[in-house]
Structure formats: C-alpha cells, structure tokens
Task: inverse folding
C-alpha cells in the first residue's frame, strides 16, 4: 500500500468516496479507509451524502504529510526535454488542417486552425537553428523567413515553402470559419506558394497533396458567392465555381504541379473578371456584353453550352473569363438565341433545385445536356455526339455514376 | 460473445482457458520461449491442442474442460523429455500444478472487463455507462505486423457512439497469432477503452485526437499500472509488463494518425506533470495523480473534441502564461474543469 498515493489522490479530489480514491491507487476501498482513519484529523464526512463521502479539512497539513511520506520527490524540478517530436508536431498540424474539410462546425474549424498553428509554432520552436529562443506561442510565419533554407538542411528537413503554406492555410481556415473576408490577393499568394511546393520533391508526400486539395476546397468556398447576397445567382455560380476548380484539379490537369499552376491562373482570372458575380439582372451562364460588329454580339457564356450549337451556327470563343468554364465569344443572332434559351432553362433548374450538393447540380445539368443534345430540331448529328462527351466528362469530374 | 465461426471461437477459447489458468506463469512462458526451443515447442503444442479440441462441437464449459485435460497431458509428456532444461522444467511443473488446481474458467475476457469496469466506474461515477463486450476475429494482425516482432495480435475498439444505455466494446483478435503476450495485453486494451471512450462526452470518434487517443491514453496507462495487481494479483505484474511493451510497439508507429496523436498526447501529459511538480511543488507521484484527474474530468466535460484537442496543443513546454493562471485556479479548486477548458482553449490563430 502506498499511503502517499492514497493521500495524494484524496488531496487531488478534495471531496471523494473511498471507491474514487481507490480508483487512483493500488489499494482497494478497505485499504483507503484504513488510511483515512489513520489520518482522521485531516478529513471529515460530508453530511447528507447519498453514499459515504469525505472531504479534506486541512490541505496544508495533508500536503506536509504527503511530502514527508512520498519518497519519490526530486531535489530539483524537472525540465522536459524537447524530445524528437518535431516531425510529429508538423504532421499533426497538417492533419488537423486537412481534417477541417470534414468538420461541419465553423467554431470547431476555427479552433482546429488554432490547434494546427500551435503545433507549427512548437515545431519551429524545437529547431536548433533559431538565433534566439522565442517562446513557442510568440513564433509566427516570420520565423520561417528567418530560418529560410536552413530548414531544408535541418534535423527535420522541410522546405520554407511548405511551412509558409501551412501557416497560410491555418490562417485561411480560421478566417473562413470566422466568416471574415479574405482578400483574393492572399489566396493568389498562397496558391503561388503551393505551386512552387508542388514542383519540389515534397509534392510526392501524401500530406502535401492532401493540403493542396484542402486549399482548393477552401479557395473555392471563399471565392464562390453565397446565397445571402443574391440567391438567384447562388446555385449557378456554385456550379460554375465547382466546375472551374475541378477542371483545375490534379485529375483533369494530369498532375499536382500542373493543377497548382492552373489554380493560380484561376484565382487571377477571378480577381480580374469577377465572372461569378454578373451584373444585376444578368445571368451567370449566358449574358450579352455588347455589340461585336458584323451583326454579331459579344457574349459571356458557359463554355460547355457551345457544344449544343449546330456547326452551322457561328460562335467563336475569344477569351477565358473563368478558365475551362466561362468564355467570351462572338455569336451570330441564331447562336445567341439558342444559347440564351438553353442557359435560361438550366439556370431556372438550378435556382429551383431542392438539392444542395455540387454532384446533384451537375447531375441536373447532365440531364439537360442529354435532353438538348438528343433534340431533333437542331438537325446536326455532331451535337448529339459532342454533348454525350461533355456529359461523360462532367459526370466523371464529380464521380457521378452513369 | 465470440462473434466468429464456431470452430474458430472454440480454438480461441481453448487457448484463452489455458492462458487464464496459467496466468501466474505465462510471463515466464513468453520470456523463455525466446530462449528455449522446448518452450517454443510447448507453445506449438498448445496451438495444436487447441485446434484438436476445437474440431469437436461443444459448449464453452465443455471446451474449457477438454482443453485443460489435454493440456495436462501435453505438460505431462513434456516433463518426461530428458532434454528439458531445469528452468523450463520448473516452469512446466508450475503450469501443470496451476492447471490441475483450477476449475476451468470459460469466459476470461468478460471477467477481465468486469474487473476493469469496476475500477473505471468508480473513477467516472455518474458519468459512467454500462459496457458489453464482443470478441471478433480479424483476418490480419491489427498493425499488419509480423507476430514474431509484434506479438500483440489483438486490438480493441468501441462501437461509436456510446449511448446512455451503454457502450459496446469489441475485441478484435487475430486468432492465428493470439498467444500469451497478446492475452497479457488485453487488460490494457480494455482499460484504454474504459478510461478513454466509454464515458467520453464527444460527438464522434477521432483516431487523430491528441486528447482522446493521447492524453487520455496516458491516463489509461496510469490507471492500469495502479489497478493491475488489484484486478488480478497473480496476473498483475505480467499485465503491467506487457502493457508497457504494447505501448512501446504503439509509440514506434511514428507516422500513423493514431501514433502521432498518442505521442503528442503523452508528451503533453509529461509537460503537465512537470508543471505540477515545478509550480505546485508536488511530488512526481502526486503530479501524476493530478494529470490523470484532469484528463478524466475533461473527458466528461460537454464540449467539442476540437476544444480538448486544442488544449492539448497548448501544453507545449513551457506552458503559456494564461494556461499557468488557469491551471493554478483549477488546482486550487477555484475553477471548475469545465471553466478551465473554456478559459484555456484558444479559439483564434
């Protein structure tokens, strides 16, 4: 029996049953009661308790007895060694950021972002190359710049780019969760950093790839208009945004490095053209921008709609407003009327859709493409073939089963 | 309770019955098996005997009785061999005496859980939930390891979420490699589930939680160390030893989600212990009590797991000043554990 342990547990709990103290000790309840009786002057029964309980009456004296009896006291207080947990802290920081994707609670995501930042700070604080020894909670991204390339040659090799990206992602996660506005410039900077990272050997590591995917999800969320402002454009804008990010993803682009570069371009285009926020009263999938001369109009149009045009209709794409998804084009009147009609039907479908998920929206879109593509009125067999391919690509992009 | 094909269940039960009957000696059995061929042969004979007994139908009591009888014969035959070294001979004699003296216990796993649960229930009081146990067969080693290097061919999980009606613990046994070491690790696995998860107030199970799988895991090892001999005086020292060896195996898994959380959480417990020693001048033993107490109390606070994980992330050394103050208040009894968590969690990067 360890009297010190029994008394220590009693001191910790302050008010307790014998069974509770016994749960902290090697002793059974009888052994605990023996110790309590032996030191009866330090405890008193709790009146009117459901089952017998005691509480400490003289903490100071109890502590003196524990100190006298406990032979394990050290002469000097311990100082924990840093240990070799630096890699673990970095990986757990990144795993926490990745796990935010599956966390529905904004408050929890914000807390998780703070958790990840703590681990990143502790990772840096544990490195031997810091010129000063800051306390870990005072360390920020600036420390990454101070260490620079020494990080790559340190005991835990990691590129400054990766750490900058980790800190940036933690910041973005916290801002998104807090409902704060995030400047597109910050997103572009982070995407640019990721693009450099995906060109290094670290790009082959699974956590880095998952971080890249997480950034894409976050950036999409932060650049897609919410339903609060203009509910009539919310669903179409969400569809276009989802399409743009999927087409800029590693599967569509054929690799992580190419995807990272495509995402930088995507963000810059969003910053320049704001393609997901059409002027009031104008559609997302099709709108007239002006006169192109020679009887044609300059239009902004969801690119896949062009596959619905019979070849005899004239519509020439000019510029990408949203890479892979929205283009400006010069359309003849027949093409314009057809595109406008199709876009109007699809936008109405999306606005009134009871389904919230991107996969559901794409499913609805694919259904309309099948319907429009099979319509005999256009008299052009290639429309059917082209829209079939477009449908397959759309469904594959979003892993929707056919 | 054994949710597996009947013959496999009988095979497992047959081994477990022997391990239980000879539990005072299976620590020595395992150690000697690494040194003495005759002891390795004995373990192979155990495996064969279990298969032979399992080949015949019968209820648990019948299987247990047949296996102990078969095992007496095996030990008797082994003792007849002229090449058995003295140290192994003494072991075999002790095992034979243990087997002869005992009535067969045909449900050792449930008995283990009941004992662990008795202690954990006292720990958690009103927050405790009743438990039930299932034993399932898994087709591979839980860590896909070579049993020669990682003999702990068993793991435990809890069916999530536990409800107020109770918590369902599952033992997943890789029966083909379930030997004495694995049997000796079962109390630790059950203690982990009881201390870390049965009474937990959290919406989801998360393998990467530095609180649930880290700090609380540290507490589970603390409690198992305290309970081991109380739970079973004959088995306690062996259980303690294999709990530590299991910990070494699990901690060596440096890159898995669970491994990261475990290492970070244990490290945080160490920092907390150091703080109690340094700031409150508690002895190392008392400090461990306080860390275990805090972990258990936090487990029943109705807050998201993300908050508890954040607290663990702030337990880097040194502890930040605001955590100092909050810990002082908590330790003095001036702040509830719930309030401590609310104050200690940092919600903004």
Result:
């Amino acid at each position: 029996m360890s009297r010190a342990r029994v008394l220590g547990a009693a001191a910790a709990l302050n008010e307790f049953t014998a069974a509770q103290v016994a749960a902290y000790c090697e002793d059974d309840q009888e052994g605990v009661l023996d110790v309590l009786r032996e030191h009866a002057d330090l405890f008193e029964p709790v009146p009117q308790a459901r089952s017998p309980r005691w509480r400490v009456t003289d903490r100071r004296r109890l502590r003196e007895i524990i100190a006298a009896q406990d032979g394990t006291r050290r002469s000097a207080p311990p100082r924990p060694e840093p240990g070799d947990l630096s890699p673990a802290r970095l990986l757990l920081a990144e795993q926490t950021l990745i796990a935010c994707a599956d966390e529905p609670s904004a408050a929890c995501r914000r807390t998780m972002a703070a958790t990840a930042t703590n681990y990143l700070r502790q990772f840096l604080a544990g490195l031997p190359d810091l010129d000063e020894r800051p306390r870990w909670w005072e360390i920020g991204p600036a420390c990454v710049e101070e260490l620079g390339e020494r990080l790559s040659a340190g005991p835990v090799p990691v590129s400054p780019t990766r750490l900058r990206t980790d800190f940036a992602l933690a910041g973005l996660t916290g801002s998104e969760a807090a409902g704060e506005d995030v400047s597109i410039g910050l997103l572009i900077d982070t995407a640019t950093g990721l693009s450099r990272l995906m060109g290094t050997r670290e790009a082959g590591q699974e956590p880095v790839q998952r971080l890249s995917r997480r950034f894409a999800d976050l950036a999409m969320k932060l650049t897609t208009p919410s339903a609060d402002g203009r509910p009539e454009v919310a669903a179409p804008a969400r569809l276009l945004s989802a399409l743009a990010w999927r087409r800029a993803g590693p599967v569509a682009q054929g690799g992580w490095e190419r995807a990272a570069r495509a995402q930088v371009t995507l963000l810059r285009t969003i910053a320049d053209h704001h393609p997901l926020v059409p002027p009031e009263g104008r559609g997302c999938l099709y709108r007239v921008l002006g006169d192109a001369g020679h009887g044609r109009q300059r239009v902004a149009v969801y690119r896949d709609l062009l596959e619905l045009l019979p070849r005899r209709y004239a519509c020439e794409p000019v510029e990408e407003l949203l890479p892979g998804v929205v283009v400006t084009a010069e359309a003849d009147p027949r093409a314009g009327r057809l595109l406008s009609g199709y876009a109007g039907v699809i936008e109405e479908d999306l606005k009134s859709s009871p389904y919230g998920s991107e996969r559901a929206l794409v499913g609805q879109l694919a259904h309309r493409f099948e319907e429009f593509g099979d319509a005999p009125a256009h008299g052009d067999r290639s429309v059917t073939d082209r829209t079939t391919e477009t449908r397959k690509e759309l469904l594959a992009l979003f892993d929707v089963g056919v | 309770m054994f949710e597996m094909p009947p013959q496999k269940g009988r095979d497992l039960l047959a081994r477990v019955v022997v391990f239980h009957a000879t539990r005072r000696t299976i620590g020595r059995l395992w150690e000697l098996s690494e040194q003495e061929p005759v002891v390795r042969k004995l373990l192979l004979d155990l495996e064969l005997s279990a298969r032979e007994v399992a080949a015949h139908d019968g209820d648990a009591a019948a299987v247990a009785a047949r296996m102990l009888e078969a095992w007496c014969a095996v030990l008797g035959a082994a003792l007849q061999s002229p090449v058995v070294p003295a140290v192994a001979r003494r072991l075999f004699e002790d095992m034979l005496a243990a087997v002869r003296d005992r009535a067969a216990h045909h449900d050792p796993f449930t008995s283990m859980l009941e004992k662990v649960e008795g202690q954990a229930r006292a720990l958690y009081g009103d927050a405790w939930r009743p438990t039930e146990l299932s034993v399932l067969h898994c087709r591979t080693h839980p860590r896909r390891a070579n049993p020669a290097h990682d003999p702990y061919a068993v793991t435990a999980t809890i069916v999530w979420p536990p409800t107020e009606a109770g918590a369902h613990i599952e033992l997943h046994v890789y029966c083909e490699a379930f030997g004495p070491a694995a049997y000796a690790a079962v109390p630790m696995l059950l203690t982990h589930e009881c201390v870390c998860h049965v009474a937990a107030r959290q919406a989801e199970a998360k393998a990467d939680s530095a609180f649930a799988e880290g700090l609380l895991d540290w507490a589970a090892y603390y409690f198992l160390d305290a309970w081991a001999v109380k739970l079973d005086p004959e088995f306690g020292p062996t259980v303690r030893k294999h709990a530590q060896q299991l910990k070494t195996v699990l901690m060596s898994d440096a890159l898995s989600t669970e491994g990261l959380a475990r290492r970070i959480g244990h490290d945080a417990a160490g920092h907390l212990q150091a703080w109690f020693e340094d700031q409150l001048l508690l002895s190392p033993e008392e400090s461990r009590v306080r860390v275990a107490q805090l972990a258990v109390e936090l487990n029943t606070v109705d807050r998201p797991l993300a908050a508890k994980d954040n607290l663990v992330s702030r337990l880097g050394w040194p502890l930040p000043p605001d955590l100092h103050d909050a810990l002082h208040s908590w330790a003095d009894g001036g702040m509830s554990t719930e309030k401590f968590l609310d104050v200690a969690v940092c919600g903004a990067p």
